[in-house]
Amino acid sequence: MKNEVKFMSEVIKVVDVKIFPHRYLKAETTEKVLNEIYDLDGIVRVIVHGQPLPKTVPFGPARGLPVNHQDRKVIKVKGEEMELRVKVGEIIITVEGEKLEKIMDGIEEICKRNFPFGYDIYVGAFTKIKPTVTDYMKYGDISSIDPRLIGMVDASARLKDSVKMIK
Fold first, then answer.
1. Has residue 98 been placed in a domain?
2. Are residues 78 and 149 in the same domain?
3. Domain presence at residue 164
């Protein structure tokens, strides 16, 4: 199940690894896990997914009032600060195919250490690797964009509000 992505004029075979903790993660745990994942060699990109943590109440009688959720915090990943806008329920890691076995050992160790409540790990293709129509609409000529952005676009959102690139 290896896919190919052109990355800086060379072809890299990539595989996605999905970590599915049995509980939502707190901001502190998310920060710790992401930093440990980024310490592994061969990581192409990491996507966190989960329930949104809005700044304001989106509907109902309290519409527009601020939501002071304890997990909507600024976390530091690899020295870069980012606002955590979701209650993390899954982490998708795109890895270089040649390093999959070594990375899987590291991911398994990270999960055992940080998720005492249990977790599942899946290997497969969970992200887009070929440009979508929305990518063309958002970026136009996609030959000049970072390949890690392929399939990450929300047509109605500003890029800086929806994607945070960690290098």
1. yes
2. no
3. no
